[in-house]
Amino acid sequence: MPDLTDVLEQVAAEAHPLAADDEVAQPGAGPERFALALCALDGTEHVAGDADVGFPVQSVVKVFTLTAALRLVGEDVFQRVGREPSGDPFDSLVQLEREHGVPRNPFINAGAVVVTDVLVEATGSPAAARAAVTDLLSDLVGERLEPDPEVVAEERAGAALNTAMGHLMRSFDNFTHPVDEVVDAYGQLCALTVTARQLARAARFLANDGVDPRTGDRVLDEPLARRVNAVMMTCGTYDAAGQFAYDVGFPCKSGVAGAVMGDVPNRFGVCAWSPPLDTAGNSRAGRVALHLLSERLGLSLL
């Protein structure tokens, strides 16, 4: 086995320069930041770059909203949301209307909002739903996570489309609680500040048959952990899921802050972070980094 820190540093040196060629730059997100982190099941961590610099978790939190819902209601959550790739933009209203208010999967915006509605129903309030996800993710990283107030304000200012999705789902009887409150709860979860190192830790329960290897606590039953991995593989990287399966070959979930979190069953949790995005909405350098890492360590499951 090669020295993993050396491998990560080599991959970072090759992948990071590609961030300067980004096709979709987020406001204030330059190419200077890059991180790659890997956490083994025994707790050994290997990092390169800015692995301890914080950023908003954004859509990567959808893995943990789904996990929290599965813990509370099991596979009944899939009565409200599907498990298929969308083929449309992650914030499409057109597909949602065409399919009678049932989102294609939990990793597009409408899917995450309706999963949050499920959590509100199961926990009793938006605040309790937020706490269920925040506590879960904090336990998995071993540190208390908090939302960034500035990002919360940005989420609220930009909530119109998610709110429209909620009302559309309500019109098809697929939404139970006040839309504004549910959307706000989801936005606050997207604003949680994390690091690449923390997300690599958090992913490990999915690589360990649903058990958090740090504590030995069961997060999900093994069959449900496999199902989360399956949805990550097929739906976790917007309209580039097929390309990720081809190039990377293990389950991943990306977010618009530039993180791509993944897990390699029985081996690692991993996270790449570089803010500049490609046209699919995934980190350009992050995608390349995970491709190179997968090639050099033989991580593809396919």
Automatic annotation (TrEMBL):
Pfam families: Glutaminase. Substrate binds at S59, N109, E155, N162, Y186, Y238, V256. The keyword Transport does not apply. It comes from the Bacteria. It is an enzyme of class 3 (hydrolase). GO terms for biological process: glutamate biosynthetic process; L-glutamine catabolic process. Coiled coil: none annotated. Its EC number is 3.5.1.2. It catalyses: L-glutamine + H2O = L-glutamate + NH4(+). Keywords: Acetylation, Hydrolase. One of its GO terms (molecular function) is glutaminase activity. Belongs to the glutaminase family. Homotetramer. This is Glutaminase. It comes from Modestobacter muralis. The gene is glsA.
